[in-house]
Design goal:
heterodimer; A: mainly alpha; 9 helices; 76% helix; 0% strand; B: alpha+beta; Ubiquitin-like (UB roll); Fumarate Reductase Iron-sulfur Protein, Chain B, domain 2; 2 domains; two-stranded antiparallel ribbon; 8 helices; 7 strands; 35% helix
């Protein structure tokens, strides 16, 4: 079993399957995270109660965090291996190269990864541990977020980072279907539509919330 | 018509190559790209220069021998055509044309615009065949095959192995080529007995040859002169995953 798994992982397709499954896990988390955060619009009581409820789950919280951490590690590790393989596969580059079908999102996947990772580290220090937050109050999520986003450059940072996340999600959310072999001529064009909708919803919410605070709609 | 050609010239793999500029003058608009190179070569030979070496054979778009990257496009900008079927009328008079060989680690350069595509042969030898009992031919239609499946297999079988998918892929990946072969053989009953071993050994040979990985850019299907769709790559992925859990 272990040898089969290793043999599978030694192929580029095997690494891509790992990227697809871990990417899907992380994307699922992002969707739930974004929808949960939307409760900011209902005010402090609702958002803080939601946060307290999540925190009260005890060992489940850590099980969840470790799963995400493992997914990030496997996703990044496989990405680096594939990137090295792809770089080595064309030692002499073209003088002129034109693209017909690839998208900006597809070409920036490898750079989106580390940029998003750096942003997530900042985001955790900012809103989870509070180390990068001047007036962090544990448990008062609403205050932490509104105070944080009222600083204009922090809000802009979140907006730009989440645009990157949306691009990454757009290419990722139809790529995983292709990688896992889920395709059918009848439904293939829905894959891109689904990916755009998914990226639009997650990215849209994550850009909308800092904007709402920055523009003073929620104080 | 007149053109300025910027052609990659490289004597052999050990020498450093460079672009050289040639003028192609008084070219008829009905000349094919390779005929235009023939004309330029004749002039080079008359001048005592080395002619430009390039791959070609049937010149009717079915053998898969020709192919260069023309102004950044594998087989040139015209979709669904091999280089030999590209005509000079589809260029602008006076245009500068960059001509480069396929660039991939798995396609080492031989000279000028010629590359060694034996890695494709190695992949085919690893499993791109069916084992049959030879002898007198079986009766036609002795094995019933659903029409839509035989059509899909035929569509995949249109792959001529030219290597444009590798050349155009930002990762120099051979996934479209391998997926075409896997689909062609995997869709018909004759290919079933070796289906799961085939996908494993062909993928292993592909990785061994030093091709890159697919990142779903879609450049391969846009460059493919036979317009093989990248949906087939999903099928290849699926077959490899299935082969791992099958004995």
């Amino acid at each position: 079993m272990a040898t089969v798994a290793l043999k599978f992982y030694s192929t580029s397709i095997g690494k891509k399957v790992v990227m697809a499954i871990t990417g899907l896990t992380l994307a699922g988390f992002l969707l739930v995270h974004a929808l949960g955060n939307l409760q900011l619009l209902w005010g402090p009581a609702r958002l803080n109660a939601y946060a307290a409820k999540l925190q009260s789950m005890g060992p489940l919280v850590w099980a969840f965090r470790l799963t995400l951490l493992a997914a990030v590690a496997l996703h990044a590790f496989s990405a680096v291996l594939l990137w090295l393989q792809n770089r080595a596969s064309r030692p002499v580059r073209y003088q002129v190269q034109q693209y017909r079908e690839t998208s900006y999102a597809a070409r920036t996947m490898i750079w989106g990864g580390p940029i998003i990772a750096l942003f997530v580290i900042y985001h955790l220090l900012h809103f989870t541990t509070g180390h990068a937050h001047g007036t962090f109050v544990k448990g008062d999520v609403y205050a932490n977020v509104t105070v944080g986003f009222r600083v204009w450059w922090i809000a802009i940072l979140y907006i730009v980072a989440n645009m990157m996340v949306a691009f990454h999600l757009y290419h990722g959310m139809w790529s995983w279907l292709q990688t896992l072999g889920a395709n059918h001529p009848k439904y293939n064009h829905w894959r891109q539509i689904f990916a755009a909708a998914f990226a639009g919803v997650v990215g849209g919410i994550n850009i909308f919330l800092p904007l709402v605070v920055l523009l003073g709609i929620r104080k | 018509m007149n053109f300025t050609l910027k052609v990659w010239r490289q004597k052999n793999p050990n020498n450093a190559g460079r672009f050289r500029t040639y003028a192609a003058t008084d070219i008829s608009s009905d000349t094919s790209f390779l005929e235009m190179l023939d004309i330029v070569n004749e002039q080079l030979i008359e001048r005592g220069d080395d002619p430009i070496a390039f791959d070609h054979d049937c010149r009717e778009g079915i053998c898969g021998t020709c192919g260069c990257v023309i102004n950044g496009f594998a087989h040139g900008h015209q979709e669904g055509t091999t280089l030999c079927q590209l005509h000079m009328r589809s260029f602008d008079d006076g245009q500068v044309i960059w001509i480069e060989p396929w660039r991939a680690r798995a396609f080492p350069l031989i000279t000028d615009l010629m590359v060694d595509r034996s890695s494709f042969d190695t992949i085919i030898q690893a499993g791109g065949f069916i084992s049959i009992r030879t002898g007198s031919p079986p009766d036609g239609n002795a094995i019933p095959i659903p029409k839509d499946e035989s059509d899909a297999a035929f569509e995949a079988a249109a792959c001529i192995g030219c290597g444009a998918c590798v050349a155009s892929c930002p990762n120099a990946s051979a996934m479209l080529f391998v997926s075409a072969k896997i689909t062609q053989l995997g869709l018909v009953p004759q290919g079933q007995p070796e289906r799961w071993d085939r996908v494993k050994s062909m993928v292993a040979a592909m990785e061994e040859a030093g091709f890159g990985a697919c990142t779903n850019h879609g450049e391969c299907e846009a460059a493919c002169p036979k317009e093989i769709p990248m949906d087939l790559i999903a099928r290849l992925n699926r077959d490899l995953v299935c082969s791992m859990v099958k004995k």
